Amino acid sequence: VKALWYGYVTGPVIGVLWAFVAATALAVVLSFSTGDAFRPGLWGSVVMGALVGLAAPDNRASWLLAAGAAVIGFALSYTGFSPIHVAGTVGVGGHLAAGAGFGLALAWPVSVMMADAPRGALDRHEWEEAVIRFLTGFGYVFFTAAVAIPFYVMVMTSLKTQGELIANPLDFSIDLSQGWALFRSYEELFRDFNFGSTCGPRSTSRC
Amino acid sequence: VNALLIQMGVTESDQFLRRAAARADHGDGVRDLALLPAVVPLHPRADAVDRPDMYEAADVDGASPFQKFRYLSLPMLMGILSVLFLLRFIWTFNKFDDIFLLTGGNAGDAHADGECLRAGLRAVEYRRGRGGGGGDPVVSAGLQLVLLPLHVEGGGAVSGSAKLMIAPVERSSEQRAEPRDGGFAQPVRLSVCVARAPRALPRTYFWKDEGDPS
Description:
A: two-stranded antiparallel sheet, B: about 210 residues, 5-stranded antiparallel β-sheet
């Protein structure tokens, strides 16, 4: 493990791992919120993660690093080498959200993880601090996704009709323009099916 | 999730997760164990970790971040972790009937390639009291206690352990309209399925219909 105890080794390793986390999380979030096609790209993530991880230790202007990563991520999103592949039908806004969003979601956390680590040799405390910050960040993302996504899907599907759900199962967006009509399923549930009452159409007791 | 994976190019078949769902009695457990750390902080006992004085002392002694986790946080969490681990383990096994009723224990076309043979005990029907949707837990538990240890040997070619699942049979509209008849209205079919060992052991399918397995 001691071979890793250098800022210029630990930084890129953490950078690449976090790039995978950020690319996957962002691709899933964008796919779900827009219904368009986004998927994480392997080599774009590897290269950008390694570069950002290399630049992160001893960095006094992390906002500059984040801004640079955002610009590069946006530019790469138009190439085959992008950290998040974007479908051809998606407009500039989608590329901006995927590319620039990835740059920010990569550079800012990696800067925080490597904040106290110098570029050269690390002592045990500096190295473990960086690693534990990465693990903490990964834990937040992973467990938030594991709890929030199923819950959101549950709520979101209740606000759609069967037809809308079948038309595009990946469209996780909620059509807010419908206003109160969104809650039609609930209205039917309570009005037509007497949900919560003992006198529903399937109730078994006398009432 | 299948649709998402197809779009991302991870898989081309929508059977990818359905097959996983057939093994959901295992997968569910894995997910539940993965979720375990998420519920730990919700528990009052986890407050035991919130002891800044101990971490200060550890800092003074020069403990590294990993050492503080391994020798302070983890031991203090061990009590509640053990309790939650045990409970989630038990609850996970109780999900078995959910999965069976939702997927039939099958993955899409699993009937076609499932190496599942019906044992002689098929289609034992009995009746249970009218009420909720699931099987009667007492009857179910009793039958499973009796039948689960059953080891089936058939014709030399088939050997494996029998598994048992009880599913409520879909009631016809006449049956639904039927008035309450003393609490015995819902037939429950009992099927026993034999997985061919050892090739199909991870995939245990349950027979639901009357079709010929061959």
